[in-house]
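Q: Could you write out the predicted structure for this multi-component system? I'm mainly interested in how the pieces pack against one another.
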Amino acid sequence: EIVVTQSPGTLSLSPGERATLSCRASQSVSSDYLAWYQQKPGQAPRLLIYGASNRATGIPDRFSGSGSGTDFTLTISRLEPEDSAVYYCQQYGTSPRYSFGQGTKLEIK
Amino acid sequence: QVQLQESGPGLVKPSGTLSLTCAVSGDSISSSNWWHWVRQSPGKGLEWIAEIYHSGNTNYNPSLKSRVTISVDKSNNQFSLKLSSVTAADTAVYYCASSSRFRLDYWGQGTLVTVSS
């Protein structure tokens, strides 16, 4: 089983700053199999990035994904107040098919 | 765009069976998508439960496999989840979702299921 670990647990930044969120897998993961989601309180998760670096439909270009192998990054440039949320990375594997990191909570000061 | 709506009892007794249905609109359950259940315990992260293809092919999370059944109802364009022998640890918001390739593209709004006597 591939374990996915996110860091930091919480990130507190100001509007206009850049956020860098990390996702590390316990084994190498194909970039095709790595996705990022945003979840705001009381809402379902929303797909942000798939294939490690492809923005989902309607996602602003402030959001970008990168990485390969075991280390992946979600970058949010020019933070806005509405970016306050929990962000999850997800990998597609063998068993279980889908596994999520524990999440990074992003707070906008 | 695919729309998903969960329904089912919000309260289940311990040792009972949790049963939920996800109605699909904007797409056919017989499309090339896979259909999923994911849960989130209060204040916790996301846990993938199971997936099904319209052909009946299924995959389960090994941690829940012995208690979970996922099924598809083509005539009503919906799919369902059954989780048996529930305990308080199964209290969670249950989401249904769809995937095309290796990611969960669309999600329902979620439904809270509480296990309590």
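A: Regarding packing and overall arrangement: Chain A touches chain B through 24 residues (CB under 8 Å).
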